Each structure stands twice: as C-alpha cells, then as structure tokens.
Amino acid sequence: MSIHLSGWDDTIVALATPQGIGAIGVIRVSGKNTFSILNELFPSKDLSVQASHTLHVGYLKDGDQVLDEVVLSLFKGPKSYTGEDVIEISCHGSPFIQEQVMAAITKRGARLAKPGEFTQRAFLNGKLDLAQAESVADLIASNTEASRKTALNNMRGGFSSDLKQLREQLIRFSAMIELELDFSQEDVEFADRKELKALIAELNHSTQQLIRSFSLGNVIRNGVQVAIIGKPNAGKSTLLNALLNENRAIVSDIAGTTRDTIEEVININGILFRLVDTAGIREHTSDVIEQIGVEKSLEKMNASDIVLYLFDINDTSADELKVFEKSLQEKNIQYLLVANKIDTAESGKVQAISHFPSAIFISAKSNTGIEILKQALTQKAISGEVNTEATIVTNARHHDALLKLSQSLEEVQSGIDNQIPGDLLALDIRQCLHYLGLITGEITNEDQLDFIFSKFCIGK
Which positions does UniProt annotate for K(+) binding (predicted)? Predict the structure, then answer.
C-alpha cells in the first residue's frame, strides 16, 4: 500500500541521535535530492554511482571549509527505511559540528524534518502500515522488557497480520454480496449466509480477545500506580525502602513522619510499578500539615490501580480490616492487605488475619515476605504471565476502533439473523472494513496522520 499526499516530494534532514555532546552524532537525510546534495559536500567520490547499503569514509566540505570527517551510510530507495533515497551521516558528537553539517545541507535545498516525518514517509511509501508505524514510537519509548517485546512484535507486523486476516475474509464476503446486487433480479445468493454468520462469530471472538488484551497492554505500556496506604507508624516508608532496596524514605518511630507523598518507580518482572508512599491516615489530627497529607493520601488511593493497605498486625483487628476492605470493594479498587511486623506477632493474630484471602504477611524491617508481595503485585496487575509473543493492544486509538468494529460486527450478525437485504448487509460489512482500515491506515486523512506522527521524536 502506498499513499500520496501533496508536499511530500522534498528532501528532509534531522538529527537522529539525542541532543547534547556525545562521541558520535547521526544525521539522517531522506528525499529525492539526497544524493545530489551530499555529492556537493562529499567531494572524494560520486555517491550516486555507489552501491546501496555501503559505507564511505571521507571529509564533508562546505566549499573550502572542512566540516568533519564522517562515515556515510547509503540506502537507495525503495530499499530504505522511508522508501526514498536515504543517507545517514555519522559525524563527531559536537553540537556545533552537527549544526554546521545540517546548515550546509539545508542551504542546498533540504528542510528540517518535522517530528516523526521519516516514519510518516515510510508509511506513505508502503514500508509500514499505520499500526506498525505507531509501534516504532512505542519501541523508542519502551522502558521494560515486556514493553520492548510487545512493541517489537507489533512493529514486525504481529498485530497487523491479525487484522489483515480479518480484513481479507470480510472483503471476500463483501465482494460476493456486491455480486449478488448485480444479479438482484435473478434472486441468487453467492454468499452463503450460514458461512458468513460463522465467520462473523469468529471475527467477533478475535476482536473481543484483542479488546480484552488492552488492559494488559495499558499496564505494559504505562505501568501500574500503587498507593501504599495505612495508619501512621504502620511501616509504609520502611516497606517502600524494602521494595526499592534503598533508603528512599525517612523512617522514624514518630507517628506522622511522612507528611507528603513520595513516588518512586520499580521494575518487577518486566512491569513498571509506580509506588506512592502516602502520609498515614488517621481520622483526627490537630496538625494542619498532616491533615493536608491525609487528604492527598486519599486522593492517591482513589486514583491508583492497586492499593497496598499496610497495617501493624499487632494493633489491627479483623473487624477494622473488614470495614476498610468493604470500602475498597465499594469503590471497585484492586487491593492487597499487607500485615506488617509478622516477626513480632502472636500466633492468634496471624490466625485471625489468615481468613482474609488477599492478606500477605511481611516484615518490612527484616525484609521477610517482600518477594512474595512482589509476586502478588505482579499477579494482581496482569492476572497471569505476560505472553509478549501474542498480540497485545497497547494503543488507545486502536482500542477505540476495535470497540466500534465489535459493534459493527454485531450489527452484521443481527442483519443476517433478520434476513435484511444484501445491499444493507453490504453497508454494514463496509462499516466493519472502515474501522479495520482506521487502525492500519487504509482509511485515513492528512490531519489524522499529522496528529499521530507529531507525537514522535524528530529524526525518527
């Protein structure tokens, strides 16, 4: 698939490596005039007659001025990332040198690339579909093994392959129904309605699986916010330090030491957990600052994906836990009850708390049970093992289109059941194809593309 938009036949240039001083900087140039521009700056040989996918070492010169000694990587279209002629310039990592090189290139007719424009050109030239192009940004932003593998699988076409199968099957039936319309006076059916009904049921099942995967995909992509809640002196700061394996929060025997929230990130089994250590919650306090801290704690609790309710097992009754557990359940908040100071607990206390299915016993001070708590957090976040080889939806735009696709499939199903005319059935199937096309880019417009690719970094 190739899409042609106006204003996309010029030559662009951008720095493809991060801003700042480094050993090497890479400048990427793409477009129809790439080789003619670089030939003016690289006098040692004619680049246009060199083979694609080769490296060339020499000096870049702007007139008589030597800019830098560089390595040029040549990629002749269409066998390049963008599908156009591309040259990547590996120069020394001085910001001054990089600016001088790009200035020399723009002086010869190239323009600075917009964010994501190289990948946008790859999409427009049929090198990637839109879902694959968006996964490039996800891969760049990945910060865990799970997010890397998921983005890589989608970039290689895992998600697109699933959608392509759905689309091809729908197109086949759509064509058969359209053919029926040409022979409407002869009252013939080229599309077997029973077979179509079975296909729609199968497609709807696949669509529902993709929709359900979004909750996991959202966890993989954005992480999980976890609020550590409890009374003053329950050991919340000590638990945060134990989970991080460092002394991040101040710990003391004075109740109310933590006045504000402390946020840290930890990677557990490839999932990012954003831990929030909150001020101790107690109903009555005369300290104005502490009151503000308690209010912020409740706000964090309500905004979190998971709440760790930490309590001192020695001074918390089962009745208190039931009240707090009920309030969390009413708010539909996922939670774990974490009984701290197990190393000093009486056996009767342990037995009373053991009746709570979500209870976990730890000693934050001596690091007892911390690994069990981490496993429970992971299980609560993803409800099982992350299979990054399977297709996982991580993009909210894709999720929205899949929800609309599911609704359209149900309308097709209803149409078959009610034996509606073929022309109306064909309209419903076209609607399904429309929502599939929104994801992969068969259905799109210039404004939508500009919005999607504007979120990319410049140079990609």
Answer: 233, 252, 254, 257
Task: Write the CB contacts of 39 (distance below 8 Å, at least 6 apart in sequence).
Answer: 46, 47, 48
**61, 24: one domain:** yes
Residue 46, CB half-sphere, CA atoms under 13 Å: how many?
2
Q: Is 258 annotated as belonging to a binding site?
A: yes
| 270/378 same-domain check | yes
Q: State yes or no: 223 annotated in a binding site.
A: no
Instruction: Give per-residue pLDDT as tens, 221-264.
Output: 778 888 888 888 888 888 888 888 866 544 444 444 444 467 88
For strand 271-277 and strand 262-268, is the pairing parallel, antiparallel, or unpaired? antiparallel
Q: Is 161 annotated as a binding residue?
A: no
Instruction: Give Dmax (Cα) for the chain.
Output: 89
Structure tokens, 7: 């204003």
Region 359-387 average pLDDT: 83
233 with 378, same domain: the answer is: yes
Cα–Cα distance for residue pair 107/96, rounded to 1 Å:
16
146 assigned binding-site residue:
no
In terms of residue numbers, what domain contains 57? Answer: 12-128
In a domain, 456, yes or no: no
Instruction: Tell me: is residue 25 an annotated ligand-binding position.
Output: no
Residue 460 is labelled as binding a ligand: yes
* 447 in any annotated domain: no
Q: Is residue 448 one of the residues assigned to a domain?
A: no
CA 217/CA 241 separation, integer angstroms: 28
pLDDT in tens, 315-350: 888 888 888 888 888 888 888 999 999 888 887 888
